[in-house]
Design goal:
The complex is a heterodimer of chains A (233) and B (568).
Chain A: H1 13-26, H2 32-35, H3 61-74, H4 89-98, H5 105-123, H6 132-143, H7 158-174, H8 186-191, H9 202-209
Helix pairs in contact in A: 4-7, 5-6, 6-7
Chain B: E1 3-4, E2 8-13, H1 19-28, E3 33-36, H2 51-56, H3 65-68, E4 72-74, H4 109-112, H5 114-122, H6 140-155, E5 162-163, E6 166-167, H7 191-202, E7 208-209, H8 248-254, E8 258-261, E9 265-271, E10 277-284, E11 287-298, H9 302-311, E12 333-334, E13 341-344, E14 359-362, E15 381-386, H10 391-395, H11 407-417, E16 421-428, E17 437-445, E18 451-456, H12 461-480, E19 485-488, E20 501-502, E21 528-530, H13 545-561, H14 563-567
Helix pairs in contact in B: 1-8, 1-13, 6-13
Classes of the chains: A mainly alpha (233), B alpha/beta (568).
Chain lengths: 233, 568
């Protein structure tokens, strides 16, 4: 019945697999994402903080380093398992800035520069070089709108910048992997979300209620009917 | 000059919940019907269970007429209105029924007779000061056959509580008598739904499953619900959500008497020197068309219905079509759906594969279902305990002061609690008032340069008092299921743009206080009909869609039965 070009994301299963393969690189430490393939039991040892990502399309190397440091504190990798960086939240944000969130590129530029200025001004060092504890205290100031001072340069409240980055980090960690984040379903495993299913039987529901339903580990776009020229699933 | 098109018997402006239903009886009767829809066709291949697209980014809509016309709002007429937030509705064949929650309630009998019932039981002084509420021009029993028809044509699942006066304790004992059962049983309950129902019974209440325009079993060749969990602002990839785009519109097309024109943006309704409508002007891209018709039915959303009338000025109607009594835009209200109550529970709720239309309803505190002698309001609220959870929204849950909402502490909290929150959806009686209304904004326009709608409105004492009352009941229920934290939302103040927008073209016998007559036709322009919740004068404590669909069917049937009188 469709009488116009379909506005469906232009991806194929092959693209999806390719991007999942690239996740190793995007997860910043080669092999790390695969090694952390989530299971019911979190990894025994806490991974160290991760290095900044490789070049992003929409941000400079310095901006990327700042964003990486911030995202790493929002959902850290810790003794409970991997966090937002391993989930590919940076790649998610970068892609979003090319598409749906392209109006936000300037807000990222300005906000990240202001974050760093505020850090130097209030803590005496660039944000990326602060201890985790100091990073967190800076971010609390930013979240509460208290990151002010001569020449810091947040546009409006610093809280608006914080909320934007948090919102996109959450989308990139807990959203569908098709958009470049939630690598290896890291986000869904944090939540205990058992995954995308098209039909959930009463028996599936009872199994979930008993904690027995295995995670589905599929993107919505793994189902054929949502792919261009796709058939039924 | 616009291109003059071949004349039609009826032109229907908008093929959403109401217009999409009305076309079926019109086309089946052999009338030549043109349906103008601003949006386009979408289908189940467009409806991936994708929270980022459904809930955070643009939907797969190609046309965003509603969004570009989103209303401004202010609380009182001495303020300047602001344009904040998105438009709550969408443009497509089927309209917002593509991604709505699909709760498909009948109003209760009291909702049709708020003034007379209140006066009789408690005295006229109990009608809130400043309210312009009137009884409907007919009672529940007049609409019952049309509720019945739409429930069966569209497909509504549910548990009857009153069949021809015979009460069934599994259903809603407060509903009006229905001729027969729903065509499908209610959507299934989860273990948590069962737990809530048991707790409600323990409180002496009467829990039941709510009705939904969603297949609980295979119906009319389409499958039952898959419970995939992305129904909230998501289209159904299985075709189990019974939008008119799957039901009444295809049936109308199959008669050969309905032509659907997509991307048609209607700008004005034309009238002749006698004040009768002659057709509608619309644009598709840069091309202008005039569609002549013997009868015009407007069936866009409440804001658009009112706006289209106010923008259609002529010598016969200098203040807008059908507005010579100054009633277009009056008696407006946004349904009071806020003032929610939420809780944190010490156990998982198993809500990942739920949907907003799946759950447990309590009607004991709605309408006049309890004695109001000792409370300071009329009406009430329906408590709806639904199942609805998606991953990003779960990760955005409140932390009840236990941790900040990010960092390792938060990660520990969310691992434990992602499936342990719940919130009630409480729909409440909302009344029209003399100083709440819609008009054209003096400042903001759409891309064509036409002013958008301005909402002037705030909830009054009656709405706030009953909101607090229903919050108390919700808290009681949460305590009964062992909630460890309970939060209450604010009681409400300014009315914003709403998914439940009523009035503006109210239906009633008195042309001094109503725009359309008891059949939905203009008191002033006899061959103009209005479909949708803009004709409703009361809200009840439940979703408006099924009522607006039953009214739309009734208006269409009246037109068929009185074609000669109305069209000539």
């Amino acid at each position: 019945m469709a009488d116009e070009p379909r506005n469906r994301p232009k991806i194929s299963r092959r693209d999806l697999l390719k991007s999942a393969g690239a996740a190793g690189a995007a997860a910043l430490i080669p092999g790390r994402a695969a090694a952390d393939a989530p299971s019911a039991a979190p990894p025994a040892s806490a991974p160290a903080a991760v290095a900044p990502a490789g070049p992003l399309m929409n941000l400079t190397a310095q901006e990327t380093e700042l964003l990486s440091a911030m995202v790493d504190r929002l959902i850290p990798s810790d003794d409970m398992g991997p966090g937002a960086l391993e989930a590919g939240a940076l790649r998610y944000i970068d892609r979003a800035l090319s598409e749906a969130e392209s109006d936000s590129v300037e807000a990222y530029r300005i906000g990240l520069a202001a974050l760093d200025r505020y850090s130097r001004y209030s803590r005496g060092a660039p944000f990326s070089e602060l201890s985790d504890r100091d990073k967190d205290s800076v971010l609390i100031d930013v979240q509460l709108g208290g990151a002010t001072g001569a020449g810091v340069g947040f546009v409006g409240s610093s809280g608006a910048f914080f909320n934007m980055v948090k919102s996109h980090t959450w989308q990139g960690t807990f959203g569908d992997p098709m958009y470049g984040g939630n690598v290896n379903f890291i986000g869904w495993d944090i939540l205990g979300y058992p995954g995308v299913r098209m039909r959930v039987s009463e028996d599936d529901q009872r199994q979930m209620e008993a904690g027995q339903l295995p995670p589905a580990r599929r993107s919505a776009y793994d189902f054929g009917q949502f792919q261009v020229g796709g058939g039924e699933d | 000059m616009p291109t003059q098109l071949r004349s039609a018997d009826v032109v229907v402006v908008g093929l959403g919940a109401a217009g999409g239903v009305a076309v079926q009886p019109l086309a089946a009767a052999g009338l030549d019907v043109v349906g103008l829809e601003a949006g386009t066709w979408l289908d189940r291949r467009d409806f991936a269970p994708d929270e980022i697209r459904n809930n955070y980014r643009d939907w797969p809509m190609l046309v965003k007429k509603a969004e570009l016309e989103r209303p401004t709002s202010r609380a009182t007429s001495d303020q300047t209105a602001n344009r904040i937030g998105a438009h709550p509705m969408m443009n497509a064949v089927g309209g917002t029924t593509l991604h709505y929650w699909a709760q498909s309630w009948r109003l209760n009998p009291w909702d049709f007779q708020v003034v007379s019932q209140t006066t009789q039981r408690y005295g006229a002084s109990r009608i809130p000061r400043g309210s312009t509420v009137e009884d409907w021009p007919f009672g529940y029993e007049e609409l019952e056959p049309f509720y019945d028809r739409v429930e069966h044509e569209i497909g509504v699942s549910g548990q009857a509580g009153n069949i021809r006066g015979q009460l069934d304790p599994r259903g809603n004992r407060f509903e009006g008598p229905r001729e027969r059962a729903y065509p499908m049983p209610a959507l299934r309950w989860t273990a948590f739904n069962e737990r809530m129902a048991q707790a409600a019974k323990g409180l002496g209440w009467h829990p039941f499953p709510g009705p939904a325009a969603i297949n609980s079993t295979a119906y009319q060749g389409r499958p039952g619900c898959g419970y995939h969990g992305f129904c909230n602002k998501g289209g159904c990839p299985l075709d189990a959500k019974n939008s008119p785009y799957l039901t009444t519109i295809p049936k109308a097309i199959d008669t050969g008497n309905l032509r659907v024109i997509t991307r048609a943006h209607v700008t004005t309704i034309a009238v002749d020197a006698n004040g009768r409508t002659t057709g509608v002007n619309y644009v598709v891209g840069n091309d202008e068309y005039f569609q002549p018709a013997r009868v015009v039915l407007i069936a866009s959303y409440t804001y658009e219905n009112v706006r289209l009338l106010l923008l259609s000025k002529s010598r016969a109607y200098p203040d807008g079509l059908s507005n010579n009594h100054g009633q277009v835009g009056r008696h407006y209200f946004s349904h009071h759906q806020g003032a929610g109550v939420g809780a944190l529970l010490p156990y998982d709720t198993g809500a990942w594969y739920g949907l907003p239309a799946q759950g447990v309803a309590i009607d004991d505190f709605a309408d006049d279902n309890f004695d109001h002698s000792d409370v300071d309001f009329i009406g009430g609220g329906n408590l709806w305990a639904m199942s609805d959870r998606r991953p990003i929204s779960a990760a955005n849950m409140g932390t009840y002061g236990r941790t900040r909402n990010w960092g390792s502490g938060w990660k520990r909290f969310i691992r434990e609690n992602a499936d342990r929150t719940h919130s009630f959806y409480i729909q409440k009686t909302t009344l029209p008032y003399e100083d709440n209304y819609l008009d054209l904004d003096p400042q903001f326009t759409d891309p064509l340069g036409f002013p958008v709608i301005r909402i002037t409105g705030q909830y009054k004492e009656n709405e706030l008092a009953l909101a607090a009352f229903t919050q108390d009941k919700a808290e009681e229920w949460y305590r009964a299921i062992g909630a460890t934290e309970i939060t209450r939302g604010g009681l409400g103040n300014q009315m914003g743009a709403s998914t439940h927008a009523y009035g503006g073209t109210r239906m009633g016998d008195d042309a001094e206080t109503n725009v359309v007559d008891r059949f939905g036709f203009s008191h002033e322009a006899p061959n103009l009909g209005v479909l949708g919740a803009s004709v409703m004068g009361t809200s009840g404590a439940r979703n408006p869609t099924l009522t607006s669909q039953a009214l739309a069917w009734r208006t269409a049937q009246h037109l068929v039965d009185h074609w000669g009188d109305i069209a000539d």
